[in-house]
Structures are given as C-alpha cells and as structure tokens.
Amino acid sequence: MAHRHTVARHGAALTVLGALVLGAIPSAEAADPEPSAGSTATAAQTLGADKPSQQVLLALERDLKLTAAQARERLVNEAEAGTRAGRLRNALGERFAGAWLRGPVAAELTVATTSADDVAAIEAEGAKAVVVKNTLAALRAVKARLDSTDILYDTRNTPLWYVDVPGNRVVLEAADKPSGDAFVLAAGLRPEQVAIRVTGNRPRLFENITGGDAFYIDNAARCSIGFSVTKDQRQGFVAAGHCGRQGSKTTGFNKADQGTFQASTFPGKDMAWVEVNAAWTATPEVKAQGDQKVQVAGSVEALVGASVCRSGSTTGWHCGTVEQHEVSVSYAEGTVDGLTQTTVCAEPGDSGGPYVAGGNQAQGVTSGGSGNCTDGGTTFYQPLNEILDDFGLTLKTASQQAAPAPQDGTTADAWKSGRVYEVGATVTVAGVRYQCLQRHQAQGSWAPEATPALWQRL
C-alpha cells in the first residue's frame, strides 16, 4: 500500500497518526506599477486559487456551509485580498494595525490604522478602513512581555495569549480572573493593556491512537507526516517537534526503515524534520477526503479570517478559518510561541498533519488544540514558513522549477528561490527594486518581475 503514504514511492504528503498530543500613502494606482510583459496574472491565478481541487471545494462547502459557487468565490477573494493587504501594510508602515477578512465569501477586507489620514488610501485599495488606538507593533510588544514572563511563571491557569488583531488588543485566556490578573502583574503590564478572557478550555497536544498511515519513532511513538521537503539533494518531511528528538529513528507505516530526525524543537516552537532514505520519495501531495490528493503549490501565508483545511488520520479532511496568528500556547509539556489558531476541528491522532489555505498553499503542521469534531473545537498549527526558514528546507511543490540566476544585487539583496521572505522585505532584480507583499517561500516560477501578487515594484 506504499502508494497511500506521503513520502513512500508514489506516495503523498499526507497526515498519518497523531503525535504525542494532538508619510503620504500612494494611491492604489501608484502603488501597483504596470507589470512587465507576461506578468498580468491576477493574484488568484498566480497562487492557483482560481483552479482549486474538487476536494478543497467540497470540504469548504461542508464545513463553512457554502455553495460550490461561494466556495470558489471565497478562494479568489482571499488570494486577491492578501496582495491588497500587503500593499497597504508596506504603505502604512508603523501606523499599520492589522488586516483581516470577514463574510461568507471573504468579500470584506478590513485594514486598521492609527491615523484617520490613511482612510482614503485604504478605501482606494477596496478595503474597509478602521482607525484604532494601538499599532500592531505596540500590541506585539505587549505580547512579548507576556512571552518573556512565561519563562519564570507558572502558566497552568493561563494557557493562552495572543494579539487579537480585529479587537486591537492583547488577549489572555485564563482559568479565572485572579490568575489572569496575577500573570499580567508579573509581566509588569497595566491591567488595561491586556484583556482577560475566562475559559475552561485547556489546549493539549493530541495523543497517539491507532489509525491511518503512520510513521513510528524509535519503535515506540507514532506521529503524522506534514509536508514533503528537500534540503540540497536530501529528501524528507516536516512534522511537529513533539513527535521526536534529533537522532530519533523512524520507520514507515509498513514498519520499513524510513529515516532519522535531523532537527527538532519543542517546546518554544513545535517543529521537526525527518530525512528519509532512498526507498522513500518526497512528493507535493496532501491527503484529502478518502484517497484523493491535493497538490501543494507554495506557502503564501493566509490572512486572519481566511479559510484553511486540515488533513488528519482520525477525523480526515476538515476546514475552518484562521482566527489569530502569533499565538502563545502553554501546554502541560511547555509553552510554544508563534502558533496560528483556527476553528478547524481535530481529535487525538490528528496531530502533526498539514494545513492548506487558498486551495493549495501550505500553512503549517498541527500542534494541538481542544474540543472535537462532534461539538467543534480549536486547533493550533506551527507555521510552515518558520520551519522552512529555521531548518533551511525547501517545500516540495507541484510545479517546482529551477530558479533564474540573480542578475544583480548583493548576496543578501538578490532574490533567491527557496528563501523565505517576510512582508516588507526588498530585493533587486535586473536593477529594479521590489518589496514583498505576502510572507512566502520563493518558488522558481515566482520571480518578482512576474508575480505582482507577491512583489510590488518600487
């Protein structure tokens, strides 16, 4: 049955078995220079959101209660909104306070700023403008104080904190108000700087159970495969860091020798990568419903409010929406920072599996969560771009091409396929400067001059 496994020859990058725990702003026209010849593709066309797989559409219809037409429209809207939000983020600079999507088909893009003078420019990009008190940078600074305090503080009664972008605030979830107040005080913050939400939810890492295609760690634990990757000429896959330690040996679903953990980080982050032997081949596929597959085309990060789908061996293929980025979760085993929170359900055994947004853009691997797929729940994933960047990996995609040689610029300045670019990063190609609009790992076919969805000419 090797054809069913992610990294097995003819296999797919599927989830397997849960791991240990499941100034003045330019106008819209000025901000969007004329594309060079052959680069007129829309953002949706560039990212493949205009031609989603049937498996993605069916899951969106079921889980988000959409019609087929609405599911298609939503994916296109999400892709186009990401580019517009990137332009505005770069233009607003320090005044930027976040961007998010709303509505059944994600038709409403909202961009927040701390200056009323920016409203006209935001609306010129087709977005709704909201003037707020706190910049995104200021909110992140508050969260960073909580992050640093966590090292010395018992967070068993304060398991979750994050920047709530739509709410323009930092939120701390706690078992009770006194516990939340005490954590805020310990961080040296004022009560008005952090909103406390009392909840009985306690995120956990998803526990091991039998089911689905699995890989085994040191003949003991079982875990799920995330996405296939390469490192130079070496092949392998990413998974959750709590699946195994560096040096741990793995066997495949068929108990055949498979590979070795080359790196693993947990807690702090929840990421790992396994190098496989010659009997296994990395592919760009993720398991959807049944034996169907979704082809991964890139790793462009989804906005808050965007739809996202997850594959898991226990509950299969489910979708939901992105609720928050940069979430800190205090598991019983340790705190993990920088996770993304979603409304996708999951259960024990789904841990380690892949999340896909926009129909084919890889997002991350399951870390943990709460709830279940009967009554609904919350899940957290470790963002993939950070895994790729930390470990120097390249995502295996459906249409990988050799990258064109940089024509000029310094080593740090030249565009390079395989490098993870953050929003606002600049590169030089053929004497022209470009600025990144959306966080992603560069693909060979995504050179800046040909992808206005990802790069803005300066």
Write the layout of secondary structure elements.
Layout: H1 28-31, H2 43-47, H3 54-64, H4 68-92, E1 96-102, E2 108-113, H5 119-124, E3 128-131, H6 136-150, E4 160-164, E5 169-174, H7 177-186, E6 194-198, E7 204-205, E8 215-217, E9 221-223, E10 228-231, E11 234-239, E12 249-251, E13 257-265, E14 271-276, E15 285-287, E16 293-295, E17 307-312, E18 316-331, E19 334-342, E20 354-357, E21 361-372, E22 376-383, H8 384-391, E23 394-395, E24 420-421, E25 426-429, E26 432-436, E27 440-441, E28 455-457
Parallel strand pairs: 2-3, 5-6
Antiparallel strand pairs: 1-2, 4-5, 4-18, 7-21, 8-9, 8-12, 10-11, 10-23, 11-14, 12-13, 13-14, 15-16, 17-18, 17-20, 18-19, 19-22, 20-21, 21-22, 24-27, 25-26, 26-28
Helix pairs in contact: 3-4
Keywords:
about 450 residues; alpha+beta; Thrombin, subunit H; GMP Synthetase, Chain A, domain 3; six-stranded antiparallel β-barrel; 8 helices; globular; disordered N terminus
Overview of the molecule:
By secondary structure, this protein is of the alpha+beta class. It folds into four domains: 1-22 and 206-400, Thrombin, subunit H, CATH 2.40.10; 28-43 and 64-131, GMP Synthetase, Chain A, domain 3; 136-198, GMP Synthetase, Chain A, domain 3 (2-Layer Sandwich); 401-458, Seminal Fluid Protein  PDC-109 (Domain B), CATH 2.10.10. The protein contains eight helices and 28 strands. The strands form six sheets. It has an eight-stranded antiparallel β-sheet with strand order 9-8-12-13-14-11-10-23, covered by helices on one side. A six-stranded antiparallel barrel has the order 17-18-19-22-21-20.
